[in-house]
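Proteins fold reproducibly. Consider a sample protein:
=====
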Amino acid sequence: MHMQPLYTGTPYHGSGVDETLFANGLCLPSGSDMSDDQQDEVIERTLGLLETAN
């Protein structure tokens, strides 16, 4: 979270593991207000990436 622009300049109390995870992970849109269509799009794109990787 601390790497998001919203948190620029706020104190950071970590060891760097989080930055490694962020650099090598996948950030997916999420939220309780996502519509079914938005959720379907995230699912379709994720499945598309998995199919391409195989």
User: Anything to note?
Assistant: Residues 30-54 form one domain. The chain has a mean pLDDT of 90.
